UniProtKB/TrEMBL annotation:
This is Aminoglycoside phosphotransferase family protein. Residues 33-249 form the Aminoglycoside phosphotransferase domain. It holds the Pfam family APH. CDD domains: APH_ChoK_like_1. It comes from Amycolatopsis plumensis. The keyword Metal-binding does not apply.
């Protein structure tokens, strides 16, 4: 997916584990199919996972995620437990982490997730101090990147309407910015980070983008997961004001238009979800 991606395989993971955590030396490592773009993930035995950053840019997430997870208050869902942090070795140049395994199936587009609004509100209610969220800054900070991505996407063969996209984006930018106190937010509520059992949200993965900021970013599941039929109930439960809802739509648009041209040939999960978002926003009329 990335030009500077480090090569990964099962043998590397098992050598790292044997060399640094001999208590798990006999556990087999199995690569997990994932739409993730930052880490390679392996299941270690039945109770653990190993997460290894793919690029240098993701290496700092190991420390940040551990700090963030330690600051979370009580939540109505399970979150990963950081069991150990490994050091560079065996030719692998960055820190890596061992997490506890969480049961559940990743959410699928178009499927309502009971408990999603409850989770968003519970996280927002956390009063612990936290770092600034990577994606919790004003929407204007991604204006240049979003417009460039809209232009790039319009030059592909995707059935994309750049005029409609720019209209959604303009409405989001025109919405008043968040002036309330910074809220705790996850920042990356992609379907693949949401674990469900019997249709109910039971676990949330990948906390490297979490922190405090504008809560609009955590409205993105309204478009990357839900449908026109289920979206209103989520909105009613979370009860954002109109400006926050508009900024949330803008965040969903920006993420999708940036992801799709970058990953359309290298990550089927991410590109399919980006198409889903754009279709829900009315700026994509089909998919390929």
């Amino acid at each position: 997916m990335h030009a500077d991606e480090h090569a990964m395989d099962t043998e590397l993971v098992e050598r790292l584990v044997r060399g640094q955590f001999p208590q798990w030396a006999d556990l087999p490592a199995t690569p997990l199919a994932s739409g993730g773009t930052v880490n390679a993930v392996y299941r270690l035995g039945t109770e653990l996972t190993v997460r290894l950053p793919l690029t240098e840019g993701g290496a700092s997430d190991i420390t940040k995620e551990r700090r963030v997870l330690g600051a979370l208050g009580e939540l109505p869902v399970a979150v990963p437990a950081v069991v150990a942090v490994g050091e560079p070795a065996e030719g692998y140049p960055w820190p890596w982490a061992v997490h506890g395994w969480l049961d559940g199936s990743p959410a699928l587009e178009g499927r309502a997730a009971a408990g999603l609004a409850e989770f968003v509100l519970a996280l927002r209610a956390n009063r612990a101090a936290g770092p600034p969220a990577r994606r919790g800054r004003p929407l204007s900070t991604v204006d240049e990147a979003a417009r460039a991505a809209i232009g790039e996407l319009s030059r592909t063969d995707e059935p994309f309407d750049p005029g409609a996209a720019l209209a959604v984006w303009a409405e989001a930018l025109d919405a008043p910015p968040w002036t309330g106190p910074p809220c705790w937010l996850h920042g990356d509520l992609m379907p693949s980070n949401l674990l469900l059992r019997d249709g109910r949200l039971t676990g949330v993965l990948d906390w490297a983008t979490a922190g405090v900021g504008d809560p609009a970013i955590d409205l993105i599941p309204a478009w990357n997961l839900l449908t026109a039929d289920t979206r209103p109930a989520f909105r009613d439960a979370v009860a954002p004001d109109d400006a926050t809802w508009a900024r949330g739509r803008g965040r969903a648009l920006a993420m999708a238009v940036i992801q799709l041209p970058y990953y359309r040939h290298t990550n089927a999960v991410i590109s399919a979800n980006a198409r889903y978002v754009l279709a829900e926003l009315g700026v994509l009329t089909g998919s390929r």
